[in-house]
Amino acid sequence: MASNFDSFLRCMGEAGRRIDSHYIKLDVAGSAKQIYRERVYCYELYHQLRCVLGDSSLYELNGEVDKAGHPIIQKALGAKKPDFIVHVQGEMGRNLVVIEVKPLTVKNNLDELRKDLKSLKGFLDEAHYHMAVMLIYGDGTCDLPQEIRSELKNLCDERILLVWHRGPGERPAVVDK
Q1: CA distance linking residue 132 with residue 91, whole number of Å
Q2: Span 44-72, pLDDT tens digits
Q3: CATH assignment of 2-175?
Q4: Which of 105, 115, 147, 166 is most buried per CB count within 10 Å?
């Protein structure tokens, strides 16, 4: 499973490189400000991942699968809806990676980041995912804040990777905690 995960990370890097700036920060009519919209970014990342992965992957990529009715996950974790899962549908032993995505602005709401990290840990422990990814994306204007790195370091779980997508045209990359 480790080689499949490494392959997926390479594909995620290529998919992220293809994401244009207007999927990262959106113009707002009547305002000079641009805003992050996580769902817009996730939809484009999903599209680009599907293009890179193609149809020959051993695993399926699914976005925002509601686990509220899942007989195993609901009981252990409650109603969770991760941003992405890569798995073989119907086989708990073939769960490759679970991914949560947050914009850079999550540094202003660390409770939200902690909630997602707790959810990722639950998917690893209870749903037997091989790995988890906390993907933070930015607009290319700054580096990843230390407070985000610290939250992952405090979790002390090597199965959860911090991935930083600095901005458009760049490959998301695993960050040392």
Answers
A1: 17
A2: 999 999 999 988 788 999 897 655 565 56
A3: 3.40.91
A4: 166
